[in-house]
Specification:
The protein is an alpha/beta fold. The chain is built from 13 helices and 11 strands. The strands form 4 sheets. The chain has a 4-stranded mixed sheet. One of its GO terms (cellular component) is membrane.
């Protein structure tokens, strides 16, 4: 208890002056402010993480399965050990191309390089039994990918190398950019197998002209990729150019070539990764005035990597009969002399040397010729 004597305050034993009490209470204020700021900081961090996570989910269309599929794709590519167990996935093209585009940074040193045979077709593969015979005994050196109409349900026998090799596909229309989309989709799916080193595009009407060993050696030992890219001043070449493609693609850059190609892994990644030239072709190269499958890859790859192109295709096609489609060959025309003329009838450059071995594949073959080709495959093709 406190008493006063005049103007002097007298404190009893153990009593603390009021102003000291106030001072002691004020000593707790900085600590409380620190705790307040700490809690505020934790709250902001939590809010940021929540918003980021929400944003990621939005990017992936709220589909947890697609997020997991894409993450599994990236993680598998990082491990560089084995190809996908299945070609079925739920990635859209953007996610697929993004994943495939990261597949060139590092390759396993112990891999066995393979050729990816990519079949672009609307439906059945009537000549697949001949390809079965061609592939026989070479399982470690090739892989197969099929892009067909999304409504087509294949019925290959489980013993066939084509069984289960259909990729998630979309409609591809002749002469339109959707055809190039299908080609890029095939390349992207094939890039997910890090053992695939070379990528060959063929159709349901294509056949091999040589045995597997010859084709594998020819492709694997080539210093260049096989894609035609010609600067042709004609209505069907430069005449299809649209001035709206400037400045990304100038008239002097415009090229024409065959749709059927063979690309190295490096060029395949460039095709899948491209987001610079693609929009120009999508909006300014349209059917009836411009056929994107004849111009997009020849022009784009000439701009990006001209020194890596042999500037010719490995697929023999006969355009001599005129019209928008090449000649179709059936049993009566498919003789030993015919194939000999195709294989030995021209000369070309291969690794800076002249050779007569210019074509590895032929298009187009009628389905009715299958039995004839199977019975003469050793005579015609060496297998």
């Amino acid at each position: 208890m406190q008493s006063r004597v005049g103007s002097v305050s007298i404190l009893e034993e153990g009593q603390i002056p009021p102003r000291i009490i106030i001072h002691q209470r004020n000593n707790h204020l900085p600590l409380r402010l620190l705790l307040l700021f700490l809690l505020l900081g934790v709250g902001l961090v939590f809010l940021y993480v929540s918003m980021y996570t929400y944003g990621c989910i939005r990017i992936h269309d709220f589909s947890s399965s697609r997020i997991q599929t894409h993450q599994a794709c990236v993680q598998r590519l990082a491990s560089w050990t084995r190809p996908p167990l299945t070609l079925v996935h739920e990635m859209n093209d953007t996610e697929l191309f993004s994943c495939a585009s990261s597949s060139l940074n590092k390759l396993p040193s112990n891999r066995t390089p393979k050729i990816a045979f990519m079949f672009l077709t609307r439906g059945p593969l009537p000549l697949s039994p001949l390809w079965d015979k061609f592939f026989q005994g070479n399982d470690r050196l090739y892989s197969i990918y099929i892009h067909s109409s999304p409504t087509y349900d294949p019925d290959f026998d489980p013993s066939s190398p084509f069984y289960g090799r259909q990729i998630p596909s979309q409609v591809a229309e002749w002469g339109r950019m959707s055809m190039c989309d299908a080609e890029r989709r095939l390349l992207a799916n094939a890039l997910l197998d890090v053992s695939n080193e070379w990528f060959v595009l063929v159709s349901e009407a294509c056949i091999p002209l040589k045995n597997f060993s010859t084709i594998y050696t020819h492709i694997s030992q080539s210093q260049l990729s096989f894609l035609g890219a010609f600067d042709e001043d004609s209505p069907n070449a430069r005449g299809r150019y649209n001035w709206g493609m400037e400045p990304e693609v100038n008239l002097s850059d415009w090229r024409k070539g065959s749709q059927w190609f063979e690309l190295s892994r490096k060029l395949a990644v460039e095709v899948v990764r491209d987001a610079f030239y693609y929009p120009k072709f999508k909006y300014f190269c349209r059917a009836d005035s411009c056929y994107s499958d004849e111009h997009y890859l020849p022009t784009m790859l000439t701009l990006l990597s001209p020194r890596l192109l042999a500037n010719r295709t490995l697929t023999w096609v006969d355009w001599s009969r005129g019209g928008p489609h090449p000649a179709l060959y059936d049993v009566g025309e498919l003789t030993e002399n015919f194939f000999k003329d195709v294989v030995d009838g021209e000369s070309c450059m291969y690794n800076n040397h002249t050779t007569n071995l210019c074509f590895m594949f032929l298009r187009k073959i009628a389905p009715s010729a299958l039995d004839h080709l199977l019975s003469h495959s050793l005579e015609f093709f060496g297998f």
